[in-house]
Amino acid sequence: MKNLPQRSCVICRTQKNKNELLRIVKNKDNIVKVDEKGKEAGRGAYICYNKECLEKAKKNKKLEKALNTKIDEEIYIEIEKNIEKKNGGDVIG
Question: For 6-87, CATH number?
Answer without folding.
Answer: 3.30.1230.10
